[in-house]
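Entry 14. Structure prediction run on the chain below.
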Amino acid sequence: MIKNIAVLTSGNDCPGMNACIRSVVRTAVHNKLHIWGVHNGYRGLLADEIEELNTRSVGDMIQRGGTFLGTARSGEFFEEEGRKQGYENLVKHGIEGLIVIGGSGSIKGAASMSKEFGMPVIGIPGTIENDVWGTDYTIGSDTAANTVVDAINKLRDTASAHRRIVLIEVMGKTSGWLAMTAGIAGGAEYVLVPETKFNIEQICEEIRADYAAGKRYSLLVVADGAASATELGKQIQEKTEIDTRVTVLGHIQRGGSPTVQDRINASLLGEKAVLAMAEGKKDIVVGFDTGVVVEIPIDEATNNKKTLDTEFIRLAKVLA
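Output returned:
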C-alpha cells in the first residue's frame, strides 16, 4: 500500500487549485499517509523543491485563487532525461505516487514519466477552458465563466449608454467553452469560437440592420483562438461605421476567489485522487460525468480532443 504521495500544480493556474490541494493534503493526513508538496510545478520537481505538508500547511487556503505551491512551465521535463531527474527526486524522498493538477499537457507529461519509470500518477483536471477530454468539468472553469459574465454585465451598461459595439476577448486557443458559456449566460449577440467559422460581412450586415431598427448596442464575445478581437474590432468599425470598442480580459480570468462550485468540486476530486492512489490505482484522471466523479484512463484523457457541445452552439444562435 502506498504511504508517501506528492502533489503538484502545473501549467496555467486557475481558481480552485488551492481548494484541491487542501483536499489532497487533508485526505492524505486523515488516511495516515505522508503527503509532499512540489513547489513551482515541473520546474520545481527537477530542482527538488519538495517539502512534506500537513493539515496546517493548507489552512486559510480554500477561498484563495491561484496555487500556493506555485506553477511553472519546464521544457526540460518534456525530455526523457528531465523526467528521469524528476522521478529520482521523488524517489529520494520516498515518494511512491504523484498527483498532478493541471491541463491535458501537464497530465500527459506525468503519464510519460509513469510509463518510463513506473511512478504511479493520477491527474486532476484544472483549467479555465474546460477542455480536458472525458470530464464535464475542470477546476477553475466555473469561476472564470462568472468573471467573464461579470465583465459582460458591466460592458453592456457602457455600450448601451454610448450606442456602441463592444467586443470582449476571452481565453480559448483551441476550445470555445469559456466564450460560449459566458456568452450565452451574458446575453451576447455573437459568440465566436475556434470550433466554428464565422462570416464577418454577415455579422456587420446584421449589426447595421439591428441599429437601423433602434438597437442601442451589440456585444460580441470572442475566444482568442477564433480571432484577435482587436483586429476584428477595427474591421467591424470600418464596415459598420458604428463606434466599436474592444476589451481584452486577459489574465483577470485566471484570478479571484473560487466559486462554491469550484471549491466543492475541487475538494471532491482531490479526495477521490488520494483514495484511488491509496488503493493502488494509477494512470487515471479523476473527473465528472453528469455530476458523478469518474475515473478516466489517462491516455484517453490526454490523447483525445474534447469537442464543444453542439447544443451550446445551437442555443447561442437561437438566443442571439
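The mean pLDDT is 96.
Filed with the rest of this week's runs.
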